[in-house]
Amino acid sequence: MGPPDPRQRFEEIYMAHYADLLAYLRRRTDSPDDAADAISETFTTAWRRVGDIPEGEQARLWLYGVARNVLANQRRGDSRRTALAVRLRAELAAWDESTPRQDTGAIREAFQRLSADDRELLSLVSWEGLDTAQIATVLGCSRGAVRLRLHRARKRLARELHTADLDLARYGPRAAALVKGQP
After folding, report:
1. Is 105 inside any structural domain?
2. Class of residue 3 by CB neighbours under 10 A (exposed 0-12, middle 13-18, buried 19+)
3. Which residue has the higher pLDDT, 48 or 106?
4. What CATH number is attached to the domain comprising 24?
5. Rounded (10°) CA dihedral 88, 90, 95, 101
6. H-type helices in the chain, by residue range?
7. Which residues contact 138 (CB under 8 A, 6 or more apart)?
8. Is the pTM here over 0.70, yes or no?
9. Number of folded domains in the chain?
């Protein structure tokens, strides 16, 4: 008799412990969707590590340990997303306070009239804070190509803003730097 078939072993473990594990997760999550995500990830780990799962009752305890780690990872992810959302709300509030309401739409429209490549390039500089070497890595091109493309994108943005009769200088140094090419 050879080693047990991994698929059969997994199916036996799944059938024997699914209900208990789901109940465990439902008591520790805020929604059925969170519990479903956690049980899915728990059994995905069990499938990948089916050879590591102990025999008998120890299998259920092993699964509880995996589920506990999955929940901890979910909570850490939720905390990071919450912190990011708070930071973004603060940045958007600062932008809204410094930009007259009637101009935000015009600026957005001018930006949207640029090509997708120009928008991406300008976004990498202004929103992500990347320098030309970093952008070259992201885009997979030389720094010289990035400098040239960035210069041209800034010229096109300045032209669009001029057409809309907007001057970014009145929105602060960061906005003006986007067009003028300062860091």
Report:
1. yes
2. exposed
3. 48
4. 1.10.1740.10
5. 100
6. 6-26, 32-48, 57-98, 101-113, 116-126, 132-139, 143-163, 173-180
7. 124, 130
8. no
9. 2
